[in-house]
Amino acid sequence: MTTSPFKGRTGLKRVINATGYSLAGFAAAFRGEAAFRQLLLLNVVLIPVAFFFDVTRGERALMIAVCLLALIVELFNSAIEAVVDRISLERHPLSKNAKDMGSAAQFVALTLIGAVWAVILL
Prior knowledge:
Blueprint: H1 11-32, H2 34-50, H3 57-87, H4 93-121
Helix pairs in contact: 2-3, 3-4
């Protein structure tokens, strides 16, 4: 099996490097993606609000999990958009499809927040 030359670290050094890459990813998303900042704000509001409802711990965990899931989906969506733009800024149907599918995934994640919160609270 051939491995990438960029995969040279193992053990604790790999974990430290991965943490740095993750923090850099968060910073890039925060600086460059308005949708990420909006979802982060939504999470800052909804997650504490979840603790004010009289629901079971499992229901509260689910309410929080779907909020975090939307943040994860947005990070993937932003990564897809960055890769597509890196390859070419030229308009192409496949590039449009990739970006539209990422957007659709985010739409599903946001719909999931609404549906889960509604089912639990109503």
